[in-house]
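Trying the structure run again after the queue cleared.
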Amino acid sequence: MGHATNIITGLSVGLESCGPPVLVISAAIIGSFYLGELSDIKDVDGNLLAGLYGTAVATMGMFASGVYVLSMSGFGPIADNAGGIVEMSGQEEEVRDITDRLDSVGNVTKANTKGYSVGSASLACFLLFSAYLDEVEMMTGLEFKHIDIAVPEIFVGGLIGSMTVFVFSAWSIRAVGNAAEDVIKEVRKQFRDHPGILDYKEKPDYKTCVSIVNEAGLREMVKPALLAVFSPVCVGLTFRFIGHLRGRPLLGAEVLAGYLMFSTSTGILMAMFFNNGGGAWDNAKKYIETGKYGGKGSEAHKASVTGDTVGDPCKDTAGPSIHILMKLVSTISLVLVPLFTGV
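Done. Tokens:
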């Protein structure tokens, strides 16, 4: 129906796709926790650890299938690059049709592996959050088992955690856009200076474009990386100082706990939205290229190319990066507990 409606539909698909996976992840966390409680494992002080033990076993069970997941993830780029090689080498159209179908399958397998990443990150972050609470209690000697999000400072910390995921995603997507602009300028320059490229009389300078993408990829990801590293540190230290003024020594650690809870839950949803929405846009283009709705060159195909261009930074950059963000902020908070508690 056009470019705009394609974007609208893709957004709808991505948002809707967050529903069933969240229910599955929730069932996995609660189910593994309850099953773990049946083991009745306790620490040296007699505290019950069985629930966390069950969740840890479930997490390790997911990681045990990592090799299979990596092979599924690798299939997609291999099939995608095969299609590009077939096209550049001037193979027959039927060969390209085969690689296009394989690329569509690869998009699905990649989407499955990204769902695996979200699930494993959710379980891992739950364990890291529990470890964070235990470490604060161990470091300070004060009870630290419950976080009250009705406390204004903790609620604000949670809002900042959710905001971090959105800003991180924005900067990741913008990084792709900036790199794409540099490549477009270079391609237009080559077409202008070497018009023979268009009728295959001259070969394009691929090396320059590859260099632009590599350099931009490294340069543009500095800001998101700094945000992921320093945002939990800034939150913890700021509210530790406020807590010192107000006679609440654990305020920094409590606010950071709220930050971790909200950033993890928001990150799960955002990652699934980007991964599935981007994959849907990509496969819509592949579907049309099989001959549906007019096939290649049709108005429907042009709209699907627009959707695929929007979806690529979502599913290949922002979505997978959020998994790393979730684990990184949890790990940094756990490692720097003494900094936030003043012990």
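The radius of gyration is 24 Å. Worth checking whether this holds up in the mutant runs.
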